[in-house]
Specification:
The complex is a heterodimer of chains A (481) and B (251). Chain A has 481 residues and is an alpha/beta fold. Helix content of chain A is 25%, strand content 34%. Chain A has helices at 3-12, 35-44, 49-64, 103-111, 116-123, 141-146, 154-160, 162-168, 179-187, 428-436, 441-452, 454-457, 462-476, and strands spanning 26-28, 87-89, 126-131, 134-138, 150-153, 190-196, 206-211, 221-227, 232-240, 248-250, 253-258, 263-271, 283-293, 299-306, 311-314, 317-320, 326-335, 340-349, 355-364, 369-378, 386-395, 401-410, 416-425. In chain A, strands 5, 6, 8, 10, 11, 13, 15, 16, 18, 20 and 22 form an eleven-stranded mixed beta sheet that branches. A ten-stranded mixed beta sheet of chain A has the order 4-3-7-9-12-14-17-19-21-23. A two-stranded antiparallel sheet of chain A has the order 1-2. Chain B has a six-stranded mixed beta sheet, with helices on both faces. A four-stranded antiparallel beta sheet of chain B has the order 2-1-4-5. A two-stranded antiparallel sheet of chain B has the order 7-8. In chain B, α3 packs parallel to α6 and α6 (148-162) runs parallel beside α7 (178-191). The longest helix of chain B is centred in the middle third of the chain and has 15 residues, at 95-109. Chain B is globular. The chains are: A alpha/beta (481), B alpha/beta (251). Chain A binds chain B through residues 2-3, 427, 429-430, 432-441, 443, 447-448, 450-455, and chain B through 48-52, 71-73, 75-77, 81-82, 84, 87-88, 90-93, 97-99, 101-103, 105-106, 109, 141, 158, 162.
Chain lengths: 481, 251
């Protein structure tokens, strides 16, 4: 048995470093899902009647739908009646500043090494912290307010900006889009809302940190970002969850909407609990993320670093409706142990002269399965559409799998579509080369993996890139063979 | 500095080294020569700590430490450097970044603080000129798309950066044209001093015209069968390895 395999064993026995529990008293909905659950959630949040109706419509559609089976993942059937669909910290306060934030929450962030105070001081990032389905703190709101930027929890947006919610909610991801989107539409608890007015360039990165906290609580986030004409925003979403034995369902929906000349850059670092080394526990992450480039010359760019979750089912997509609109997808997906990821993107070219670019870097280690699934669809009207896709897979060890499922549908002859794919292995020679220069195995793997993922990591905002690099190293330390 | 006693090593069931004795002092350059399959590269690999080779007998003492007890990275940190015959490519990692990681890990091992960006850059610039390497090459991904000559020059640059006590040059001349060979050899010669030692592993005498050894050893069937000065290398060049083989057969 080579040393590399030994190290692999050692690493796989390493416990999840973010595994801890914060004691926040939860105010929960009864277990199970029916119309009453939906009404309970809506009432709890004091929602207007139209939104309750919208939720109920989604619920009724969901009831008739069946869970999709096409993804390259395996899991025992999910009992949707065994899930608590709403839980909120009991302490309900409106916060004016960080000093009013629950000290438990501050501790939570500090354990993650990303305290709000530090972020505020160092990076000027406005943080909308989401703990257990309810937004607890929103900072920098005043400053953003001066520019007319709205950045708040989804519930608050429902109260304060109902006209925007009514107009755009479900405009990118319709309630019947897919099974999990319908589920989310019925029971979403909270999330973030962001509106950038005409011609405004958001001066700071907007960021949300998600946490899943109470046991047995599905988390159903809803995010809606609207960039009005000529505006720009960079949005960061970072996630990490505490250790949990039962599998937890997470089905979020993110909708991005860009008007003429507007741009949204959406970056995610996802580090939810992946389950233990035997594949027990972990988050099921079934997310629907989609952006609509509604206006001409608009742009949406997705960047994601996916290291966590037992199962990831996620395809951040761009609908390129406006002429000359641009969609981008940069992804690093890492799987270790028994993790399964089926992730990729869809680029739907509708407008003329639309362009899209896909860079996907899969890294598989342990006994994990990592699939890239991507669709490039050029519609009839989309003259001169361009796409370039690059899908690379990196294998560590000999028990993992990497799969690529590209779908290309072209209905317009002027389209130019390019697809490149590579598969490689971290070689013992590469590792030994590093060792011989005095670099230990962990640092060597970090170096090699970060080099491999560089093209994607370069897309992340600076402060996020550093975190992502650490996360990659942490997830893969020594998983070489 | 280095004392090898009765070193025996095998890969799988195949015995390759059959009792090597070698002593290298500071300030010396030793050339290890021998026909293909004689065990030259195995010796280099065993010294640097490759896992595939099992040391079945013998001792290696390096500066008072039992080398065989040390992991490959600790050997490097103790001052052993290997210029590889086939340097690997590491996509996306620049030589600069690679060297910074290596240097700082070595410094940490030795209880020294990490070099800040400015000092590192200064050191790099200085060593770059020593081995005549261009910064644009160092900004590129390590060895990716490098020519044979560029790869070997990059190895010598790394040697210059890490300032090893003992450098092992494994077939550094292979794949080099005469100009590249001269540049690489010049770099090595500039790095030679009374405190370090170099082991040059080579099949041909050619490299030794440029890096002049103090001692030449001929390896055959996993044993050093003949040692001498640089004249031995010339004799080998003139007579070929059959001469040694015959001599061994007679003995």
């Amino acid at each position: 048995m080579s040393k590399d395999n030994q190290v692999l064993e050692e690493i796989t026995s390493k416990e999840y470093e973010h595994g801890w529990n914060v004691n926040l008293e939860a105010d929960e909905a009864p277990k199970g899902l029916n119309e009453d659950t939906v009404r309970f959630i809506s009432a709890k949040k004091g929602e207007p009647a139209w939104l309750l109706e919208w939720r109920l419509k989604a619920f009724r559609l969901w009831e008739k739908m069946t869970e999709p089976q096409w993804a390259n993942v395996n899991h025992p059937p999910i009992n949707y009646q065994d899930i608590i669909y709403y839980s909120a910290p009991k302490k309900k306060v409106t916060l004016g500043g960080l000093d009013e934030v629950d000290p438990e929450l501050i501790k939570t962030f500090e354990k993650l090494g990303i305290s709000i105070t530090e972020q505020k001081r160092l990076t000027g990032v406005a943080v909308d912290a989401v703990i257990d389905s309810v937004s607890v703190a929103t900072t920098f709101k005043d400053k953003l307010g001066e520019l007319g930027i709205i950045f708040c929890s989804f519930s608050e947006a429902v109260r304060e900006h109902p006209e925007l919610i009514k107009k755009y909610l479900g405009s990118v991801v319709p309630i019947n889009d897919n099974y999990f989107a319908a589920l989310n539409s019925a029971v979403f608890s909270d999330g973030s809302f962001c509106y950038i007015p005409k011609g405004v360039r958001c001066p700071m990165e907007l960021s949300t940190y998600f946490r899943i906290n109470a046991a047995n609580t599905g988390q159903f986030e809803r995010t809606l970002i609207i960039a009005d004409e000529g505006s720009y925003v960079s949005y960061l979403e970072g996630c990490t969850a505490p250790m949990r034995d039962e599998n937890q369902l997470h089905a979020a929906v993110v909708e991005l909407y860009t008007m003429k000349d507007a741009e949204i850059k959406y970056s995610t670092v996802q580090n939810w609990y992946p389950g233990d080394k035997n594949g027990k526990g972990g988050i099921y992450n079934f997310v629907t993320k989609r952006g609509l480039c509604a206006g001409d010359h608009s742009k949406i760019s997705w960047t994601q670093v996916e290291t966590g979750s037992a199962i990831t089912w996620k395809y951040p997509s761009c609908v390129l409706k406006g002429d000359y609109s641009v969609g981008e997808f940069y992804s690093v997906a890492v799987t270790n142990n028994y993790q399964q990821a089926d992730t990729g993107t869809k680029m739907i070219h509708i407008g003329k002269n639309t362009r899209s670019r896909i860079v996907s870097k899969g890294i598989s280690a342990g006994k994990s399965q990592n699939s890239y699934r991507g669709q490039v669809h050029v519609m009839k009207r989309a003259t001169n559409a361009r796409n370039h896709s690059q899908c690379d897979s990196l294998l560590m060890g000999d028990q993992c799998g990497a799969h690529t499922f590209p779908y290309i549908d072209v209905e317009n002859n002027s389209a130019r579509i390019e697809h490149e794919a590579t598969t490689s292995k971290i070689g013992e020679d590469q590792i030994f080369y590093c060792l011989q220069r005095g670099i230990d195995e962990e640092a060597a793997v970090a170096l090699i993996v970060n080099g491999y993922a560089k093209e994607v990591l370069n897309q992340l905002p600076m402060e996020f890139a550093v975190e992502a690099q650490k996360l990659l190293a942490l997830t893969l330390e020594g998983s070489v063979g | 500095m280095l004392r090898i006693k009765n070193l025996q090593a095998k890969i799988g069931e195949k015995q390759i080294l059959n009792g090597i004795d070698l002593k290298v002092n500071a300030g010396e350059v030793h050339a290890i020569m021998g026909p293909n399959g004689s065990g030259k590269s195995t010796l280099a690999s065993v010294l640097s700590g490759r896992e595939e080779y099992e040391v079945s007998a013998g001792e290696i003492d390096f500066l008072g430490k039992n080398l065989l007890d040390l992991s490959p990275e600790d050997r490097a940190r103790e001052g052993i450097f290997m210029a590889f015959q086939y340097p690997v490519e590491i996509p996306g990692v620049s030589t600069i970044n690679f060297m910074k990681t290596a240097l700082n890990q070595i410094r940490e091992y030795r209880g020294l603080p990490a070099l800040d960006a400015v000092s590192f850059l200064q050191l790099m610039k200085e060593r770059m000129s020593l081995v005549e390497i261009d910064q644009s090459l160092l900004s590129r991904a390590l060895n990716e798309g490098f020519s044979g000559g560029e790869k070997k020059r990059n190895e010598i640059f790394q040697m210059a950066m890490l300032e090893p006590k003992l450098a092992i040059l494994d077939e550094t001349d292979s794949g080099l044209d005469i100009d590249a060979l001269r540049i690489v050899a010049n770099g090595v010669n500039k790095l030679r001093n009374k405190n370090n030692a170099i082991i040059v592993v080579t099949h041909y005498q050619r490299l030794l015209d440029y890096i002049v050894p103090d001692f030449v050893h001929v390896l055959y069937k996993g044993k050093i069968v003949k040692s001498g000065t640089k004249d031995l290398a010339l004799e080998l060049e003139a007579k070929g390895y059959d001469w040694i083989k015959n001599e061994v057969a007679v003995a």
